[in-house]
Amino acid sequence: MKTLIIVIHPNMSESVINKRWIEELNKYPDKYQIHDLYKTYPDGIIDVNKEQQQIESFENIVFQFPLYWFSSPPLLKKWLDEVLTYGWAYGSKSNYKVGGKKIALAISAGIDEEDYSPTGKYRYSLNELTKPFEITFQYVKADYRFFYAYYGIEQNPSTKDIEGSVDGYINFLEMFSK
Q: Quick check: keyword Ion transport in the entry (predicted)?
């Protein structure tokens, strides 16, 4: 069963990690379908029906994005607001079309992991910063499965580290899709 990878990166041409992850995922078209929101909707106008139909056709969904102001890029928030509609994704008369689907996040964070801790520079862990996503997916009765994160690309942009992130991401996706 294929996994839908919804990529949300506002400047993919300058990306290091997310671009490399997509290159690797494209080697496995039988396993992963890439859906780049910024490429699909450069004007920010989302085709809600198209998005809902796509979500309905997958059981495994991963949202891939860089950590952006301690959250996601703005198009993901807009996507969540517009696509997860009352009656379709939640509500007293809902069919819960996202319900039961396995959902995860794949996040690239430019800063080292220790900076995302109670004693670190930003005082909060990535787990704490992603709670709004977890709650959102629980609210629509999806099967939220946590996240994969790669930390520190701003300080450590070596080829070895980048390739290590690819291996980690692919392993995460393999375990996620079982």
A: no
Q: How large a percentage of the chain has pLDDT more than 90? A: 80
Name 110's Cβ contacts closer than 8 Å, sequence gap at least 6: 66, 67, 152, 153, 154, 155
**Kindly report the CA angle at 138 between 136 and 178, in degrees rounded to 5?**
115
Total-model pTM: 0.95
| pLDDT, the chain, mean | 93
Looking up residue 46, the CATH number of its domain turns out to be 3.40.50.360
Burial tier of 76 (Cβ tally within 10 Å: 0-12, 13-18, 19+):
buried
Cα torsion through 142, 53, 170, 109, rounded to 10 = -70
- Domain limits for position 24: 3-177
Domain tally, the chain: 1
